[in-house]
Write a structure and sequence with these properties.
alpha+beta; single chain; about 25% strand; about 260 residues; 8 helices; 3-stranded antiparallel beta sheet
Length: about 260
Amino acid sequence: ISPPLTSPVVFKPTIFLSRRVNDAQGNFNGIVSIGLEQQFLSSLFDKLSLNESHSFTLLRKDGTFLSRLPDNIPQEDLTSHYATHLVFSHLALGEIAGTYEITSGVDKVPRFGAFRAMPDYPLVVLATLAKDNALQPTLSRWQYYRYTAGLFSVILLIILFALWQQYKNQALALQTNQKLYNSLTTQTSEAVAVVDNATLQIKEVNAAFETTFGYSATEAIALSMPEFEEKNNCFCSIEDTRFLAQAGIKPDTIHCYRHKNG
């Protein structure tokens, strides 16, 4: 779970949730990443109809600031304030939930607060109420505060569950694509090589490649494409040239490769 970053797609502060994907053998097979605009969390807070006496904050357990309501404080001030928040001393003692009293370093308002670490996620939710409001004679306001804090926790859990389901669906789609790729490379009689576009290093070959060029898979991945390219004796017959032209392939884009035996 990243700190808020400016998304290169929507150009808005966005929190990215990412997870490694392994193949059936447990090897690295890719990364699934989901972007959640910071404004989306703020809009959820807004639906709680809170006033200025309340504040809700979402942090990572390492002190990284993610989102806060009210959101009228510069993010730079919030980032430095929450990085050393007293809640982390409670978490260091193994506490997963508790209360505290603090004069806020961001708005200078004395507040009563409560925190809860989200199970199975590196997240901490802080909810505070201005001390003056909390000590008013009526108890209903305090009950409302506890209700909204609990409601926010439920909403956040629902969001995280939905993101987890989306991750599982994308992981399943990735596995399906991998199976399709494997079937295409193993069933074809054409030589297929997967090549790094930047270095031209061979990363993977199919069985037809081994038969066509005489290199084993282990030998092939130790080579780059230029290492067995034939540049001096590469030519096309007139019939080949005509055939390639019908397929839309220019003769000057043809590359010839040597068999292992020369």
